[in-house]
Amino acid sequence: MSITYRMADRDDIPVLAQLRKRQLIDEGQSPDMEIDGELRQYFERHFADRSLVEWVAEDGDRIVATAAIVFMDFPPAFNNRTGIRGYVTNMYTAPSHRRRGIAAALLEKLVDGAGARGVRTVLLAASQMGKPVYRRFGFAEADGWMELV
């Protein structure tokens, strides 16, 4: 296995949308409506305004995992001068590539990128499957969220 990592771009949107839908189904949601148009619009809008940074892991020419961080603007606080927080989302690894450290590598890229932007707080809502990865990384449960400060 030779995994490579890169930032996603607009050309990846069709694959990102498919992976997002697989993630939602794995988490127990029922695919009872069409959301392709909404996903495409979401990715286009947030790639354009740079409020979304998404990384992909590739095995050869196939994207096998993805992870994103959305930058959200909150009012400044004494413990967060800019008010900007990162929200980790779209964490998904194909079943064939799980338990190989790919999710952890993607998470590290997201957190490092957030730090480079001056973001001090990273939040996420963890699935049961994802909690062990996040805990190993240092996230702690906080009022229903897992948080890394």
- Averaged pLDDT: 92
The biggest beta sheet reads: 7 strands, mixed
Return residue spans where pLDDT drops below 50 for at least 5 consecutive residues.
none
Tally of helical runs: 4
Q: What structural class results from the helix and strand content?
A: alpha+beta
Strand order, largest beta sheet? 1-2-3-4-5-7-6
Give the strand content: 25-35%
Number of strands: 7
Query: Cα-atom Rg, whole angstroms?
Result: 15 Å
What is the percent of helical residues? 25-40%
**Secondary-structure element order, as H and E?**
EHHEEEHEHEE
- Shape field: globular
The termini sit apart by 33 Å
Q: Would you mind describing this structure in some detail?
A:
The protein has 149 residues and is α+β, with helices and mostly antiparallel strands. 33% of the residues lie in helices and 31% in strands. The protein contains 4 helices and 7 strands. Strands 1-2-3-4-5-7-6 form a 7-stranded mixed sheet, with helices on both faces. Helix 1 packs across helix 2 (36-48). The longest helix is centred in the last third of the chain and has 15 residues, at 102-116. It is globular, with a radius of gyration of 15 Å.
Any key phrases for this structure?
alpha+beta, globular
Give a nutshell description of this structure.
This protein has 149 residues and is α+β, with helices and mostly antiparallel strands. It contains four helices and seven strands. Strands 1-2-3-4-5-7-6 form a seven-stranded mixed β-sheet, with helices on both faces.
